């Protein structure tokens, strides 16, 4: 009998043991049922977090044919500590939640009879009190498991973000083998020498002094032998050290593979390597693995796949699944998600700080997508944590060695679990780990630490094959900051490596922006279609990241009045996400020194809504669009302006990024704007591979317009034969000159600029206004535009004046005025909580802010972002010059929504604030805004139109606020005249701009 496997997947008895009450011989006869593989949190969500110990029990009948064979009980992975008994006898224990292990059990089994297998599993991460819990130091310092494990010192990945994953989460099976058998076969492809090197791990449980030898065969995709080597002695295979079950230390046996078929993304060709253990010509054991002839290298600041430069277009994959956490629902599910990744133009998935199910890599091998795999992090580096990390990564390398899709290892992420900034010992450990991993797996790239900005500082590299970095910006709010950061990063700045003099920088590391991204909320329709009800994870998340109550908040803040429904709003946020990512990708592609990027992230995961797909891998609205900008060749409009007046000279540079092997000598770019009836061609384009540069400039005079229009500039890159290599679209907006000037009026405007922050007193007259800079005493001036509120402005308002207040700083209201507490101005960029050092909720760089507006009446004349019967829009790139860095608190969005014309919410519709709002002030009226209107009348049509509309509104009969800035807010009365009482927390009205904390990545 050869190898025989008996799957133990399926239903097991399951017994909670929170107080460590039971022993294997005293388990209760009645039990719950659990499906293996799978976590107990997924199958018993209401009990999750209440126990960290559980027992598994199953009876299995073993065939008589298995007698006299070595039998092993094998687990793919169990999280975290596992003890196993067979028929009441202890057979072994294992610590570690991500890699396979096994126990020899034939001495304890009874072939031909029923056998009882019992496993006790302990998981320290069950003690995490909430998800996410970012208090790493508090967790690391205080939480201890019942077995004494310091939770901060075990590899746990992002279980403190999305939920603990406890129990047997990969396959379990029994396997009967010959007493001398293979445990692992590792194949190292050598593309340059057209051959492979093979190492074997073996277990020798009986006398092996006989005539045992090994036969090696390489089989092609059709199963035909294409290379063979026979008669290799057992001693030569395992070496003089008798490494046996340590295949990474075994001798290498070489096989030639002439005319080999390479594995690549377009043609993921897989060979099989079969090793047979023979005795006197008879096969005693056989082990077959798949592999691909693939070479990956980092040199000359590029990444090379099979000696061809490759531009990485990746997405971070948390590798969690909607109802099964770590365990993929099926192989078909994995195939479909990779198909969707490739449809969107991705060529890499960064499997984030965890070891995936082996099927994940099998599918990646077959479908042709690269994988970047990472060691699960711990929270505090100690001797124990370092040893566990080293052992875990060693076993990950052994397990996944043969997968051609796997091309990059990461040791730590963002310095989690190591204090690189302050600890020389931690930095030394990380460099040692880099060299250790390169020694074990020289055929792959290794990243020591994927660094990021931290509070007041940044972490860095010490020795790495890839010079990567993580950065997040709210787009379009901070689009210019993104451009400046990318420009700096493209120069290989010194700040990406250690400033302590201990970095080992080669100067050849390729640059990769390995995290960036933005949010796009999922529709509830899609979630309910799968779950049928609100999923349990809706109650996870903290502050702006908590989904629970999103629909109630959406309605309570009355956004349904301008967007129609939450789902329509969610669709708008997804388009907002797309255009933000499009801009960021295009900026990256302008710099040929940047060899790739990784978008955060591939799919939404629970409260984190920045996926290209939702949590169920259902496409978001841009699914069929985003692939256009994620190709080897990209043509893009490198715009400096996006809004133009009628008669302006509209100029847009055209950039081509060329990474394909196509011939781009004598290429061309066709362009057209169908809405304006203009078109043209840029010819004579010549780019070498990996080059990116400006190939020409589109220039046109904006023709006469009847009204404002948002147009599409279509770009098509062609080779010399006219074949289209790339397409792209850039939105441009054009405005008629009649919006450039104010409507004629005899009324003067008082312009009050005590801070000398603008020159509008010079530009307003050019825009058609009659202004005064000193307020006449006769009361003839009834309108004002100010950038500060002091006693003089307050008196003007109290006497019936109408004021446009353009706030530019948090102290724009004089500190002695009582209104300083009624119109509270906050700088989005400052950190509000000195204790936690968390960013305020309105910055939006990590948890995205959504700036909404009512198109009528103050945005009249600006093209709609989307056609809709409702008046709500999200601010797109048309508004990028007016998006503010300050927000206004003091308007309650549920009670005073009629008085708010533009506002902001964050994440899952939290932390509402006003950006443009009105109120009564004594006998006067105030229109207050933090929008940056100082760009008005100096070239930007959107800020100019907004300014005209706001100033015209001051004298309009529609300017009739209901909010009185000095009135105390009315309390809500209970239904049917009952006594006043506070509402439950998730139903009570939330004042606009309630300060909350949000995490940083």
What does this structure look like?
The protein has 1001 residues and is of the alpha+beta class. It has five domains: 4-176, Galactose-binding domain-like (Jelly Rolls, Sandwich); 180-291, Immunoglobulins (Immunoglobulin-like); 296-629, TIM Barrel (Alpha-Beta Barrel), CATH 3.20.20; 647-735, Immunoglobulins (Immunoglobulin-like, Sandwich); 739-967, Rossmann fold. A hairpin with a 5-residue loop joins strand 15 and strand 16 (225-233).
Task: Please sum up the structure shown.
With 1001 residues, this protein is an alpha+beta fold.
Attribute tags:
9-stranded mixed beta sheet; 51 strands; alpha+beta; TIM Barrel; Jelly Rolls; globular; 8-stranded parallel beta sheet; 16 helices
Shape: globular
Here the CATH topology of the largest domain equals: TIM Barrel
Q: What is the count of helical runs?
A: 16
CATH class type of the largest domain? Alpha Beta
Please give the share of residues in helix. 10-25%
Largest sheet: 9 strands, mixed
Q: Give the beta-strand count.
A: 51
Distance between termini? 54 Å
CATH architecture of the largest domain: Alpha-Beta Barrel
Which class of secondary structure composition applies to the elements? alpha+beta
* Beta-strand content estimate: 25-35%
Give the full name of the CATH homologous superfamily of the largest domain. Answer: Glycosidases
Describe the strand arrangement of the main beta sheet, using strand numbers.
Answer: 42-41-43-44-51-50-49-46-47
Rg from alpha-carbon coordinates: 32 Å
């Amino acid at each position: 009998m050869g190898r025989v496997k008996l799957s133990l997947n399926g239903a097991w008895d399951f017994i909670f043991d929170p107080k460590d009450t039971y022993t294997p011989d005293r388990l209760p006869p009645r039990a719950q049922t659990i499906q293996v593989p799978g976590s107990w949190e997924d199958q018993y969500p209401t009990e999750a977090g209440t126990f960290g110990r559980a027992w598994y029990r199953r009876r299995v009948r073993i065939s008589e044919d298995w007698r006299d064979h070595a039998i092993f009980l094998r687990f793919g992975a169990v999280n975290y500590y596992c003890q196993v008994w067979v028929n009441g006898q202890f057979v072994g224990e294992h610590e570690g939640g991500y890699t396979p292990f096994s126990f020899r059990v034939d001495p304890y089994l009874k072939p031909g009879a029923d056998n009882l297998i019992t496993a006790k599993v302990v998981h320290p991460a069950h003690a995490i009190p909430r998800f996410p819990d970012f208090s790493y130091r508090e967790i690391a310092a205080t939480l201890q498991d019942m077995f004494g494990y310091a939770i901060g010192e075990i590899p746990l990945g992002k279980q403190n973000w999305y939920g603990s994953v406890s129990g047997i989460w990969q396959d379990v099976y029994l396997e009967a083998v010959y007493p001398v058998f293979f445990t692992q076969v590792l194949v190292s492809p050598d593309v340059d020498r057209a051959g492979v090197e093979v190492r074997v791990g073996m277990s020798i449980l009986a006398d092996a002094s006989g005539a045992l030898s090994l036969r090696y065969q390489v089989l092609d995709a059709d199963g035909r032998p294409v290379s063979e080597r026979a008669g290799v002695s057992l001693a030569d295979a395992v070496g003089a050290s008798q490494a046996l079950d340590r295949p990474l230390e075994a001798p290498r046996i070489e096989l030639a593979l002439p005319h080999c078929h390479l594995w690549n993304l377009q043609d993921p060709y897989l060979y099989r390597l079969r090793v047979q253990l023979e005795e006197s010509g008879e096969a005693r054991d056989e082990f077959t693995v798949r592999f691909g002839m693939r070479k990956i290298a980092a040199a000359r600041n590029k990444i090379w796949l099979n000696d061809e430069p490759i531009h990485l277009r990746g997405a971070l994959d948390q590798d969690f699944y909607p109802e099964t956490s770590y365990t993929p629902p099926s192989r078909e599910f994995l195939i479909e998600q990779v198909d969707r990744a490739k449809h969107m133009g991705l060529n890499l998935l960064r499997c984030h700080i965890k070891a995936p199910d082996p099927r994940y890599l099998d599918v990646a091998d077959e479908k042709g997508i690269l994988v970047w795999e990472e060691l699960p992090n711990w929270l505090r580096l100690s001797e124990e944590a370092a040893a566990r990390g080293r052992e875990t990564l060693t076993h990950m390398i052994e397990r996944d060695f043969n997968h051609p899709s796997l091309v990059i290892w990461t040791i730590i992420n963002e310095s989690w679990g190591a204090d690189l900034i302050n600890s020389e010992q931690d930095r030394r450990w990380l460099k040692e780990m880099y060299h250790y991993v390169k020694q074990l797996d020289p055929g792959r790239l290794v990243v020591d630490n994927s660094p990021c900005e931290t509070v007041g500082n940044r972490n860095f590299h010490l020795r790495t094959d890839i010079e990567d970095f993580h950065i997040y910006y709210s787009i379009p709010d901070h689009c210019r900051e993104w451009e400046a950061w990318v420009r700096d990063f493209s120069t290989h700045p010194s700040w990406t490596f250690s400033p302590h003099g201990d970095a080992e920088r080669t100067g050849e590391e390729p640059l990769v922006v390995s995290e960036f991204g933005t949010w796009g909320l999922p529709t509830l329709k899609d979630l309910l279609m799968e779950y049928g009800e609100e999923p349990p994870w809706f109650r996870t998340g903290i502050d702006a990241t908590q989904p629970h109550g999103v629909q109630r908040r959406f309605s309570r803040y009355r956004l349904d009045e301008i967007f129609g429904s939450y789902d329509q709003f969610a669709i708008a946020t997804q388009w907002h996400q797309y255009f933000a990512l499009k801009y960021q990708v295009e900026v990256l592609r302008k710099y040929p020194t940047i060899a790739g990027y990784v978008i955060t992230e591939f799919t939404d995961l629970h409260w984190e809504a920045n996926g290209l797909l939702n949590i169920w891998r259902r496409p978001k609205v841009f699914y069929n669009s985003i692939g256009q900008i994620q190709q080897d060749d990209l043509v893009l409009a490198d715009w400096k302006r996006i809004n133009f007046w009628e008669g302006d000279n509209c100029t847009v540079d055209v950039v081509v990024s060329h990474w394909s092997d196509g011939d781009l000598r004598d290429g061309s770019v066709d362009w057209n704007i169908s809405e304006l009836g203009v078109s043209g061609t840029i010819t004579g384009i010549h780019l070498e591979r990996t080059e990116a540069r400006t190939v020409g400039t589109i220039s046109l005079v904006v023709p006469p317009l009847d009204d404002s229009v948002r147009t599409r500039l279509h770009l098509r890159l062609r080779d010399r034969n006219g074949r289209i290599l790339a397409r792209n679209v850039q939105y441009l907006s054009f405005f008629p000159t009649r919006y450039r000037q104010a409507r004629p009026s005899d009324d003067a405007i008082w312009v009050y600029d005590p801070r000398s922050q603008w020159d509008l007193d010079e530009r307003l007259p050019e825009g058609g206004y009659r202004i005064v800079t000193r307020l006449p005493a006769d009361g003839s001036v009834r309108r004002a535009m100010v950038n500060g509120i002091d006693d003089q402005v307050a008196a003007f308002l109290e006497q019936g004046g109408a004021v446009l207040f353009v706030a530019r700083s948090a102290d724009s209201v004089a500190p002695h005025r009582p209104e300083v507490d009624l119109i509270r101005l906050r700088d989005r960029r400052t950190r509000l909580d000195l204790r936690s050092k968390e960013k305020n909720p309105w910055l939006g760089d990590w948890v995205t802010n959504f700036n909404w507006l009512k198109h009528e009446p103050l945005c009249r004349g600006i093209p709609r972002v989307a056609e809709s019967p409702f008046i709500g829009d999200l601010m797109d790139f048309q508004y990028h010059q007016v998006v503010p860095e300050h927000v206004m608190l003091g308007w309650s969005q549920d009670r005073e929504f009629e008085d708010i014309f533009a506002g902001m919410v964050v994440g899952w519709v939290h932390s509402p604030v006003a950006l443009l709002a009105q109120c009564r002030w004594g006998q006067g009226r105030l229109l207050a805004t933090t929008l940056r209107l100082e760009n008005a009348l100096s070239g930007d049509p959107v800020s100019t139109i907004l300014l005209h509309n706001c100033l015209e509104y001051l004298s309009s009969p529609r300017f009739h606020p209901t909010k009185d800035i000095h009135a105390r807010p009315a309390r809500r009365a209970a239904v049917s005249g009952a006594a006043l009482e506070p509402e439950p927390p998730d139903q009570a009205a939330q004042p606009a701009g309630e300060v909350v904390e949000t995490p940083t990545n």
